[in-house]
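hey so i finally got around to running the thing on that chain from the lab meeting. sorry it took forever, my laptop kept dying and i had to restart like 3 times. anyway pasting the input first so we r on the same page abt which one it is
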Amino acid sequence: MSAIRVQATVTREGTLVIKGLPSMAGHTVDVLVQDRLSRESEERYPLRGKPIQYESPFEAVAEGDWDCLR
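ok and heres what got predicted. didnt touch it at all, straight out
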């Protein structure tokens, strides 16, 4: 099964028309509708929603960078 990407605009009535699909008439296809704004934010922030694991959460960070501790 091959996948294609088509960009289309939803009308005021909430309908979407896609013409010229490379499938034969009568074939069953899966349709996924994704808002373009949500897809752009996923690409912009690839780590959003990913699990976070802290190795040593209570140890000092950049302790050597403080002049008063030298």
